[in-house]
From TrEMBL:
Active site: C343 (nucleophile), H435
Keyword Ligase attached: no
Task of the protein: Catalyzes amidations at positions B, D, E, and G on adenosylcobyrinic A,C-diamide. NH(2) groups are provided by glutamine, and one molecule of ATP is hydrogenolyzed for each amidation.
Biochemical pathway: Cofactor biosynthesis; adenosylcobalamin biosynthesis
Protein name, per record: Cobyric acid synthase
Residues of the CobQ/CobB/MinD/ParA nucleotide binding domain: 11-235
Family, per entry: Belongs to the CobB/CobQ family. CobQ subfamily.
Pfam families hit by this protein: CbiA, GATase_3
Residues of the CobB/CobQ-like glutamine amidotransferase domain: 264-442
NCBIfam families registered for this protein in UniProt: cobQ (TIGR00313), PRK00784.1 (NF001989)
Keywords: Cobalamin biosynthesis, Glutamine amidotransferase
Length: 516
């Protein structure tokens, strides 16, 4: 397709959470970037425990970082001005322009929304001044009528910024036509004016059977279906919430191990799991089988157990104990079998946790598997460190209040930011504050060799597995999804021309389907 000069913005909303907004937004970003368009993603308000640190030390939703990669640009705070990180007590940490500013309950947060909308609109205007196109992603559903008066991410943003809206529905769940019609019917006349079309997502089957329904939807709503997107498996894209997790793809079956054995990894699925994308690179390795675990018996045959990050270290440590996982972990260590803790999981492995910030529980006994002490500080550490570990260069990112001090024993590697991976090792137990370390290919391969040796497995990591290349390939699949299955001419027009004129208002009441 020829390069087109353009300027505009579009909002991708969804009939429900997890309908596919993030995927469609990323796909449109990659499709436009391929045409040479300078495009940026934007999400005014995100609620997620899966976050990322930008180059200048700002925290944003990891989905927006993924979408920035799809757009082939560096992520920045303006792309996700408001990030909510739920805690364990019905409250959420509010991150504004990459920095934590408050801990609030739902009602407290509601009162802050008018000011937050102003900041979001400022960020959107800033991005639009620097990029040809901004593709915005909504949050949840635009038809949450009890929240509409203070909405800053869906129709509140669309009406304030004059954005055309496309709505994504997940047909795999069933009831997609009812969800689309109902979404529109619940909106006010002013909000309906911005809804310009539909995307049917996760379709599988014969498209000829769906065609009559698509035409009926157009007749009922006066809006076209702009794309029917097929179900794609194995994308492993950055989910916003641990509720979106499904079983990690079995790469051991997909590619087969290089050596004789498969390496089994059990990842403890904490209730307030955060930055679970840390294990994606393990699942990408041929011959590595990754599974989520919540019961002691699910750790029994694992060659490696991973304690990942969590938004609530003390509360999730209590959950771990309630589930009977502590004896299982200590039995593993006694047998010389490896355990790896990352960020919150690393904090749990120490002797003592002193937390007057996150849980306000004071001093709590850790698992005692590492000679470390954790003290939670009021200031959140946000950084993009670079160092060396196991003889390899390592890049990562830090997001934590808990500061770990090593009180004896062996260090994992040198404990100095900018020089080595910040962490600790004692026997088969490893821990680090850095997220993203397993995405470093050479380091990951060396670590997997160590794990295989500890477990007595004849496992050899593939020499040419590139996690960065695998991510790029997945983003290209999303670009293909839009290019091959969406009405791209209609998308161009929406982006260039804005909200279409003359879209009909759908009053509440029974559907008014034309007679055939």
């Amino acid at each position: 397709m020829e390069r087109r000069s353009m300027s505009g913005a579009l909002l991708v909303a969804g009939t429900t959470s997890d309908a596919g907004k993030s995927v469609v937004t990323a796909g449109i970003c990659r499709w436009l970037a391929r045409q040479g368009v300078r495009v940026a993603p934007f999400k005014a308000q995100n609620m997620s425990l899966n976050s990322f640190v930008t180059a200048d030390g700002a925290e944003i939703g990891r989905a927006q970082a993924m979408q920035a990669q799809a757009a082939r640009i560096e992520p920045e705070a303006a792309m996700n001005p408001v990030l909510l990180k739920p805690g364990g007590d019905g409250r959420s940490q509010v991150v504004l322009l990459g920095r934590p500013v408050a801990e609030v309950g739902a009602l407290d947060y509601r009162e802050r929304k008018p000011v937050l909308l102003e900041r979001a609109l400022e960020c959107l205007a800033d991005l639009r001044s620097r990029y040809e196109v901004v593709v915005c992603e909504g949050a949840g559903s635009p038809a949450e009528i009890n929240l509409r008066d203070r909405d800053i991410a869906n129709m509140g943003l669309a009406t304030a910024a004059g954005l055309p809206v496309v709505v994504v529905g997940d047909i795999d769940r069933g009831g997609v036509f009812a969800a689309m019609y109902g979404t529109l019917a619940l909106l006010s006349a002013e909000d309906q004016r911005h809804v310009a079309g539909w995307f049917v997502n996760k379709f599988r089957g014969d498209a000829r059977l769906l065609a009559p329904g698509l035409e009926m939807l157009r007749q009922l709503t006066g809006r076209p279906v702009l794309g029917t997107l097929p179900m794609l498996s194995g994308l492993w894209l950055d989910a916003e919430d641990s509720l979106d997790l499904t079983t990690v793809v079995d790469r051991a079956e997909a590619s087969g191990p290089v050596g004789r054995d498969v390496l089994r990894v059990a990842v403890v699925r904490f209730p307030r799991l955060s930055n679970f994308t840390d294990v994606d690179a393990l699942a990408q390795e041929p011959g590595v089988l990754v599974r989520w675990a919540t019961r002691p018996e699910e750790l029994a045959d694992a060659d490696l157990v991973v304690l990942p990050g969590t938004r609530a270290t003390v509360a999730d440590l209590a959950w771990l104990r309630e589930r009977g996982l502590e004896p299982a972990l200590k039995a593993r260590v006694a047998a010389g079998l490896p355990v790896l803790g990352i960020c919150g999981g690393y904090q749990m492995l120490g002797r003592v946790i002193v937390d007057e910030v996150e849980s306000r529980a004071g001093e709590v006994a850790g698992l005692g598997l590492l000679p470390t002490r954790v003290v939670f500080g009021a200031e959140k550490v946000l950084a993009r460190p670079v160092g060396e570990a196991l003889g390899e260069r390592v890049e990562g990112y830090e997001i934590h209040h808990g500061v770990v001090s090593v009180e004896g024993g062996e260090t994992f590697v040198t404990d100095g930011r900018g020089h080595g991976l910040d962490g600790c090792r004692l026997g088969p137990v490893w821990g680090t504050t850095w997220h993203g370390v397993l995405e470093n290919d050479a380091f990951r391969r060396r670590l997997l060799r160590r794990i295989a040796e500890s477990s007595g497995r004849e496992f050899v990591p593939a020499p040419d597995t590139s996690f960065a290349a695998a991510r790029e390939a997945r983003l290209d699949r999303l670009g293909d999804l839009i290019e091959e299955h969406a009405d791209t001419d209609a998308l161009w027009k929406l982006i260039e021309n804005g909200v279409p004129d003359g879209l009909p208002f759908l009053p509440p009441g029974a559907p008014r389907l034309m007679e055939s």
